[in-house]
Amino acid sequence: MAGQGVHNFSRFVHWGRNIVAVGRNYRDHCAELGNAVPTKPLLFMKPVSSYLEEGTGPILIPRGCHNFHHEIELGVVIGETCRDVCEGEVLGRVAGYALTLDMTARDFQEEAKKKGNPWALAKGFDTALPVSKFIPKEEVKDPSSLRIWCKVNGESRQDGTTSDMVFSIPHLISHISHTFTLHPGDLVLTGTPAGVGPVSPGDTLTAGLGDLLTMEFSVVQRE
Ligand SMILES: O=C(O)/C=C/C(=O)CC(=O)C(=O)O
Ligand SMILES: [Mg+2]
């Protein structure tokens, strides 16, 4: 496995930065949840308090959640300010990448969707954003062609490739930057491929990004 240059995430990505997440960015995931493929990126935010660095503790199922899902995603870490950037400039402003999980309280999200409410509780609880080590961009030959996979207790659940994104990384970051500025250290989650599904207390999630790294998290109920 490559990845000699990976580093502790918080050494490079400072807490207190924006976390922008993209939803419905893989056709197969749109289909599995019965959603139309969007015609422009669907964006939401996760709070910085949702970060969970690998090795610092378990993923906590939020109180009252009865349908808790994994979503494996490629995370893009911004290296230079992005404000009104064109697509051609984007990759030059990226610092690197991380493997992330957009943990989702699906029942909270369903309730919010029915009422037309935001997804903050469904996507923003403590530990809703497990992250791998940080991978400098020099380690990643082609971010538009990376395998991302996730297993639960050793059983394959998600196995996709970033080449299947509806909107590319340059398109997503350019699009975001025309509405709000992204700063160094901000993280963009790029959406999940098909295979999202439930996890329970006692489960172990393992996930991988190409031949760059793997990560592992356990799951417990928040008391
Ligand atoms: O619309 C839904 O039911 C669910 C959408 C998501 O959770 C979107 C994502 O976070 C994603 O596609 O990665
Ligand atoms: Mg997601």
Please, what is the CATH homologous superfamily?
Answer: Fumarylacetoacetase-like, C-terminal domain
Mean pLDDT: 95
Please describe the biggest sheet, giving its number of strands, its sense, and whether it closes into a barrel.
6 strands, mixed
**What would you report as the Rg, rounded to the nearest angstrom?**
16 Å
Strands in their spatial order, largest beta sheet: 2-1-13-6-7-10
CATH topology (level 3) name: Fumarylacetoacetate hydrolase, domain 2
CATH architecture: Alpha-Beta Complex
SS content category: alpha+beta
Oligomerization? single chain
Total tally of structural domains? 1
Shape: globular
CATH class: Alpha Beta
Pfam families: FAA_hydrolase
InterPro entries: Fumarylacetoacetase-like_C (IPR011234), Fumarylacetoacetase_C_sf (IPR036663)
Catalytic activity: acetylpyruvate + H2O = acetate + pyruvate + H(+); a 3-acylpyruvate + H2O = a carboxylate + pyruvate + H(+); 3-fumarylpyruvate + H2O = fumarate + pyruvate + H(+); oxaloacetate + H(+) = pyruvate + CO2
GO biological process, one term: carboxylic acid metabolic process
